[in-house]
Design goal:
single chain; about 70 residues; mainly alpha; 2 domains; 2 helices; about 85% helix
Length: about 70
């Protein structure tokens, strides 16, 4: 592959990386909002420690469900 083609692909990749990060962020935000909403949690009552604990519990729950299948 010529140097020019590699440079073009690298430029495209550099443009895509911020878009990918933004989409991941949006998904994380929507997922978090849905979990909070479905669990009837109050944003104001959640400390960082509680958020970490909930995330760990949710992760363990998902891992168990994946193993059960």
């Amino acid at each position: 592959m010529s140097q020019s083609n590699l440079e073009k692909q690298e430029a495209k990749l550099k443009q895509l990386n911020p878009k990918i990060k933004e989409e991941k962020y949006k998904i994380e935000q929507r997922l978090g909002k849905q979990i909070i909403s479905q669990a009837n949690l109050e944003y104001t009552n959640l400390s960082n420690d509680q958020i970490k604990l909930l995330a760990k519990q949710f992760s363990e729950f998902l891992k168990e469900k994946t193993v059960d299948h």
